[in-house]
Amino acid sequence: MSDQVMTIREMCDAFDVTPRTLRFYESKELLFPIRDGQKRLFTRRDRGRLKLILRGKRFGFSLEDIRQVLDLYDLGDRERTQMTRALELARDRLAEMRRQRDDLDTMIAELNEQIIEGEKALAEKNRTAA
Amino acid sequence: MSDQVMTIREMCDAFDVTPRTLRFYESKELLFPIRDGQKRLFTRRDRGRLKLILRGKRFGFSLEDIRQVLDLYDLGDRERTQMTRALELARDRLAEMRRQRDDLDTMIAELNEQIIEGEKALAEKNRTAA
DNA sequence: CGTTACGGTGACGTGCACGTCAACTTCCCT
DNA sequence: AGGGAAGTTGACGTGCACGTCACCGTAACG
Q: Which CATH number fits domain A1-61: 1.10.287.3510, 1.10.540.10, 1.10.1660.10, 3.10.180.10?
């Protein structure tokens, strides 16, 4: 049953982050561990959120950006206006992510091209040097 | 002929960055504007590099990371060992970018799913409220 | 009952990527 | 010759995302 909730150390080992990071994310309202006295206990929900946070960070999203999106993932009982607003935000993010993917595809193609060129140049260098 | 080289202001307008940014990039050896006396003049090469820099930044790459890759784009006459090293680095970057694209695809799919769910919930809310 | 381990809370420090501001040149215009 | 616009070099300031350190609580172990 202890994998229902995890201690801070278990979290750190599982996600390769420091305690400081988890506490920092809590202070920024990205995670909401429950408390056993003073001690934090991270739930399944926290683990899901952390996974998304770490993914988001790999694309240069700020923690604030990520928080906005995360909120979409548990809009339970919100005001219509709040929900509408959140959806608009999410659609914007989605559009941006699609643009990013296009850019990323371009970068991958270009870098790949450059690597091939580089390999050619290297092969030539080795040939003439031999 | 003046679009062979551009002033700092023309660059700023063209790429939507500040002079400070361009000077900063030069100090980090990401750009190499030529000089007319004191004044910087940015060449076509600088423009190409800046474009790549700005794209790289959108994915959370550090300027140092970007510099390493940029160097690959003009490896003219380098030592074999240097070239080999640069190619290795580029292949690593390429692999990471492919991983990032996979992650990004996952995130796009998941966010899209959440948006659909959100839209459903919102529609339901509107129905029951009516 | 001491101490070792794990966890907590401030508070200050750090690296990155610039922003901001002061104090010059340099060129152009009238 | 005077004045403004654009550019330059320091040097210090800033926001973000944590790192680090000092100090405190407490649960467990020998």
A: 1.10.1660.10
Paired tokens of A50:
């952390």
CA gap A12, A21 in Å, rounded: 9
B24 touches strand C (CB under 7 A): yes
- For residue A109, the surrounding DSSP H or E stretch is helix A80-129
Percent of chain A predicted with pLDDT > 70:
95
As a whole number of angstroms, the distance between CA A6 and CA A40 comes to: 8
Asked whether residue A37's C-beta has any atom of DNA/RNA strand D within 7 A, the reply is yes
B11-42, pLDDT tens digit by residue? 999 999 999 999 999 999 999 999 999 999 99
Rounded distance between C-alpha atoms, residue B83 and residue B95, angstroms? 18
Quote the CA–CA distance of A76 and A69 in Å, as a whole number.
Answer: 14
For strand B39-41 and strand B34-36, is the pairing parallel, antiparallel, or unpaired?
antiparallel
Helix axes A63-72, A44-57, angle to 10 degrees: 130
Q: Do A72 and B111 touch (CB under 8 A)?
A: yes
